[in-house]
Amino acid sequence: MKQKFDIITSTCVPLPLENIDTDQIIPARFLKATTRDERFFGDNLFRDWRYNADGTVNTDFVLNNPAYSGCILVAGKNFGSGSSREHAAWAIAGYGFRVVISSFFADIHKNNELNNFVLPVTVSEAFLAELFSSIAADAQTQVQVDLPAQTVTNLATGSTERFPINGYKKYCLMNGLDDIDFLMESLKKHQLPTTQLY
Fold it and tell me: Which residue stretches of the chain have pLDDT < 70?
């Protein structure tokens, strides 16, 4: 979903596991779906962790714990490794997450998140560990992500870090533009006829 980014302040959902791959984010059997509906993929985010083999809810998994909520997912190191399926980013966006914080992202998945209006925020391992600790102590811990300033702040401790982002992607996120929107905006600014695209 196209949404403009500015400053996001939210509670977090903690997932302190390393090497979470795209098959765990959205199992391969859902790639055969004929829909692009983000809600469908969001409903199946972490499907094999959220539900037991018999289809019952796994009450031990964090997404099924009512204590945790918010639009920020905090995950362990090396998030989004494995296959390059864009469906993983669709599932994260479809569930309602707008930001994912980790100390390292797989490059292709990171770009897929950006292309689907999910902001991947890379922080130091020390900051990530502090964040997990704050959330464990208080599930209502809030984090502020300031895209214009490229900062992330743990409001429980006041700790702040800057995070990197490609300038083009930052512009697109702040203005709610996908690649086609950006191209059309550029053509309009330079008064070029869109018929030149065909």
Answer: 182, 186-187, 190-198
Assigned token pair, 74: 């905090």
Shortest CA distance to 161 belongs to which of 131, 118, 117, 119? 131
CA distance 87 to 64: 21
Tell me the pTM.
0.90
Q: Residue 194's pLDDT is what?
A: 53
**From CA 41, how far away is CA 93, in angstroms rounded?**
9
What's the CA gap between 101 and 103, in Å, rounded?
Answer: 7
List CB contacts of 26: < 8 A, sequence separation 6 or more. 41, 44, 45, 47, 85, 87, 88, 90, 91
Q: Cα separation of 110 and 143, whole Å?
A: 20
